[in-house]
Specification:
The complex is a heterodimer of chains A (about 450) and B (about 220). Chain A has about 450 residues and is an alpha+beta fold. By secondary structure, chain B is α/β, with parallel strands linked by helices. Classes of the chains: A alpha+beta (about 450), B alpha/beta (about 220). Chains A and B meet through α4, α5, α6 and α7 of A and α1, α4, β5 and α5 of B.
């Protein structure tokens, strides 16, 4: 594909329509202009010729034979007075058969002998240098002596008047046509702008949905676009509900897998069971639990999606804080939330629950009773930091990000929180950093593209 | 202490019941949401374990209805869904804590003890009232740092009274919370327990921890320290 073709195919609808319509307009006005010009010029030339023919007839009417047998024209009898004025721009000549001027009115230009014209024939010419019209008429003069002689009458008229007229006409013609073209182009631009505005609005709305500014495409659209917007909305909704349905299915799967696991777990604690068996069973159940937990969590993670619904993190955090305060009663940690209520994040609500829940629970469990969570937007990134005033992370905290490593074996069943968070951060193509907090304890910093 | 276990899986239900019974609870069992809801509303419950994935009315609905009806006993959710959304939903409905399946016996019992203690207003596992120290985890009692031997029923009565300190507890209430539905209740036995507790905890009759209110019941009157 050559570059021009590719450019034409990928250029915007607006420029396509503009280019096509402009070319059509241009061709139309050119053809119209040329046709009108042609018609006018033909008419003007016809008029000129008619005028000169009339003059030739008048001249012939004033022709008289001289004594020597030649013809002469009595100027006084010719109706056009310009023939008597020098440099009037009108001149008449009479040639004999040999091409010699035998009579001439006042001269305004030199004229080479015209090519002979057949008797009774007209020859109308437009001379270029100098600009003039010439009309020649061949005749045979039969006099009483019955000695027919051939003559040629030539009338010359300066073309200045004609050219002036033509020029004025052309200026007017192209002026009007140009004006009309300009006006039509302007109207066309406006029509295009107006006609394409629903598409522009649709693009804007889609961007807003992508950017998390609005949940779906609202607004009224022309009927041609309604199937498209409805389809888009259905797609957006479907993508969102699909995750919910998927989670429900996973939840059911988790329920049906984990209840038997819990039973087996309970069996390992039977006192009648041999100690060696107990140990092996417990290990295997622990492993199964870890794997199912990890895979189910991973599958339930929605991750970064283009059409996620914007979610306000504040209500989620408030719910989690209320829930954790209940779990850690009667001395719940002090939660300091630095999260603007207006902040919207383009992420799945379930993912946010997991992210915040795990980090807050870790801070509540390992911290010293004070937890600070801040969430700010920096352009496309959302920066989350969770800090506590506990003992902080152990050496090589990065190990905590990997599955199944426990920082504190004293508190069983846990330690997967950070690895779950790490998985979530990966799903959002984000970054996670473990460090030390200004409060004295651990600090988890997460940056998400959301 | 009387525990209600609502769990549809028969094996898990039996296990949880066994764990709690070993811990000294009198256990009532429900296999589905309908029975669970009835028991949650009508039984003298001190502590409930509710599975969230139940046939019939779900765990969340049972918790919500129990709370709405004014039942304030601690509720522990058992859930296979370890997502925070379902935990938050359960806690919002009125549960007090959650336990994700599969779990260890010790985890279940630790949560149960903590919740029951918390409901009685105690934060520590040791309940201290003057010279009397009751360890609710180890099930031991000390008076003036000397261990006191109590039978399982005596301990149950003592624990119940301390966790309801300041309240008047009738003999029938005590019997309800100590015995299962089908066990025969004899209020004279309660009187025997109280008498024995008094003599074991307060042989010199100087502390008078338990006050008898004629026709009404008993009240633990020793302030916590």
């Amino acid at each position: 594909m050559n570059p021009l073709r590719r450019r034409l195919l990928t250029s915007s609808l607006r420029s396509r329509l503009l280019v096509a319509a402009s070319l059509v307009l241009l061709a139309f006005f050119l053809v119209t202009g040329l046709a009108l010009d042609r018609v006018f010029r033909d008419t003007a030339l016809r008029t000129q010729q008619d005028k000169l023919e009339g003059l030739v007839y008048a001249l012939l009417a004033a022709a008289r034979p001289t004594e020597i047998g030649d013809l002469t024209i009595a100027t006084a009898e010719v109706p056009d007075p310009r023939l008597k004025q020098p440099a009037s721009g009108l001149q008449a000549l009479l040639y004999d058969e040999a091409g010699t001027v035998i009579w001439s009115s006042t001269v305004f230009m030199d004229m080479p002998a015209p090519a002979p014209v057949g008797v009774g024939e007209w020859r109308f010419e437009q001379l270029r240098q100098p600009a003039a019209f010439s009309l020649a008429f061949g005749l045979r003069w039969i006099d009483l002596a019955d000695d027919p002689q051939r003559y040629t009458v030539v009338v010359l008229e300066d073309a200045a008047a004609y050219q002036g007229q033509l020029g004025a006409y052309r200026r007017a013609l192209w002026g009007w046509l140009g004006g009309a073209a300009f006006g039509l182009m302007a109207v066309q631009l406006m029509v295009l702008h107006w006609g394409l505005s629903p598409l522009r609005r649709l693009t804007r709305e889609l961007r807003a949905v992508e950017a998390g500014g609005q949940p779906e495409i609202g607004g009224q659209y022309p009927e041609e676009l309604v199937p498209l917007t409805e389809g888009l909305n259905a797609m957006i909704r479907n993508e969102r509900t699909q995750q919910t349905r998927y989670r429900h299915a996973l939840g059911d799967l988790a329920h049906s897998l984990k209840t038997p696991l819990a039973v087996i777990q309970g069996l390992t604690e039977e006192r009648s069971l041999a100690a060696s068996l107990q140990q092996t069973l417990r290990e295997q159940v622990g492993l199964m639990q870890q794997i199912t937990g990890y895979q189910l969590r991973k599958a339930a993670t929605a991750g970064r999606r283009v059409l996620s619904e914007p979610v306000a993190p504040r209500p989620i955090l408030d719910k989690l804080v209320a829930a954790l305060s209940k779990v850690y009663a009667p001395q719940p940690p002090r939660f300091e939330l630095e999260v603007p209520a207006t902040l919207r994040v383009r992420a799945d609500a379930g993912d946010l629950y997991e992210l915040f829940g795990n980090l807050l629970e870790n801070a509540a469990k390992y911290g010293g009773g004070r937890i600070r969570l801040s969430l700010v937007r920096e352009g496309r990134w959302v920066q989350l930091s969770v800090e506590d005033d506990g003992p902080g992370f152990p050496e090589q905290p990065e190990e905590l990000l990997e599955r199944g490593v426990r920082a504190d074996t004293q508190k069983p069943g846990q330690g997967i929180g950070l690895s779950a968070v790490n998985e979530l951060v990966k799903a959002y193509e984000g970054r996670i950093e473990l460090g030390r907090s200004g409060l004295g304890g651990a600090r988890v910093s997460v940056a998400l593209q959301a | 202490m009387r525990a209600l276990v609502i769990e549809d899986d028969p094996h898990l239900r039996a296990q949880v019941a066994q764990h709690l019974a070993d811990e000294g609870y009198t256990v009532d069992l429900a296999a589905d949401g309908e029975n669970g809801l009835y028991m949650a509303l009508e039984y003298p419950v001190d502590f409930a374990v509710v599975d969230l994935g139940l046939p019939g009315p779900g765990g969340i609905e049972i918790i919500r209805k129990a709370r709405k009806a004014g039942r304030a006993y601690p509720i522990l959710i058992l859930t296979a869904r370890d997502g925070w959304q379902s935990k938050v939903e359960g806690l919002e409905a009125g549960a007090d804590d959650y336990l994700v399946k599969p779990f260890h016996r010790e985890e279940l019992l630790a949560r149960a003890r903590a919740l029951v203690r918390r409901a009685g207003g105690w934060a520590q596992p040791e309940l201290r009232c003057g010279p009397i120290v009751v360890d609710s985890s180890a099930k031991t009692v000390q008076v003036d740092d000397r261990p006191v031997e109590l039978t399982a029923y005596e301990f149950k009565v003592l624990e119940y009274l301390i966790l309801h300190a300041g309240e008047v507890v009738s003999k029938s209430t005590l019997a309800e919370h100590l015995y299962a539905e089908d066990e025969e209740r004899d209020s004279n036995v309660i009187e025997v327990f109280i008498r024995r507790l008094r003599s074991k905890l307060d042989p010199g009759a100087t502390l008078n921890p338990i006050t008898t209110l004629r026709g009404a019941g008993y009240r633990w009157d020793l302030p916590r320290s």
